[in-house]
Design a protein that fits this description.
This protein is α+β, with helices and mostly antiparallel strands. It contains eight helices and four strands; from the N terminus they run H-E-H-H-E-H-H-H-E-E-H-H. A hairpin with a 5-residue loop joins strand 3 and strand 4. The radius of gyration is 19 Å and the shape is elongated.
Length: about 210
């Protein structure tokens, strides 16, 4: 059971990190049951937006204006197990990993254009530090579950979703502060690498966090 739980946690991390490019599975699966079915309630707009698009699609909904949205998803053959994992998981930790992945990828793209800069232990350490950063202000806004069946393979799966939201400005400020602390505490970073961090911090402060 412990091994299965660890596997499910790893799956959740993978789902979160890939959430910025969710695939529309509308034509590949059919919904057999969902949280609101027995009450005659349709699936919520945020879930439809996420499944057909991404976290950004959720943010485009009027009710989430000026909010940054993260949908954490868990999948298992057993509905109750998937729901239990969603309820017990640390959403803030999973979201921190997703933020770290996005910010680190952005930093690497910026670094690729710097002449003469090779991979350094200091740069790697700085990137890894983002995964350990903490954020406050997240709110569990909604949750849902659904049972689907793949039309081709006939495999059934239970999906549990949790929607977390935070005011975009608050999150951007926290990310910028974390990056500043990482840069200032890592004395081994080169001048060029520090400039990359400064540019990234300025970009986040002015334009917000994009995931």
């Amino acid at each position: 059971m412990k091994l299965l739980q660890r596997s499910m946690i790893l799956l959740a991390v993978i789902v979160v990190l890939a959430s910025c490019s969710s695939t529309d599975v509308k034509n590949k699966t059919e919904v057999l049951d969902h949280k609101g079915a027995s009450f005659g309630i349709n699936e919520p707009a945020w879930l439809t937006a996420y499944i057909q698009g991404s976290n950004q699609s959720v943010e485009a909904l009027p009710e989430y204006k000026n909010q940054t949205c993260f949908v954490v998803s868990f999948i298992d053959a057993d509905r109750d197990f998937a729901i239990g994992m969603a309820e017990s998981a640390s959403g803030s930790s999973l979201i921190a990993q997703m933020i770290a992945e996005t910010v680190s990828a952005d930093a690497e793209r910026r670094r690729a254009g710097v002449q003469g800069e090779g991979t350094s232990a200091a740069w790697t350490q700085a990137s890894e530090s983002m995964s350990n950063a903490s954020y406050t202000g997240f709110r569990k806004s909604a949750d849902w579950w659904r049972i689907t069946r793949n039309k081709s393979t006939k495999v059934q799966e239970a999906h549990a979703f949790v929607l977390y939201t935070i005011e975009s400005r608050i999150l951007s400020d926290q990310i910028a502060r974390n990056l500043t602390n990482i840069m200032e505490n890592n004395k081994a970073l080169s001048a060029a690498e520090r400039e990359i961090y400064r540019d990234l911090i300025a970009h986040i402060r002015s334009g917000g966090f994009k995931h």
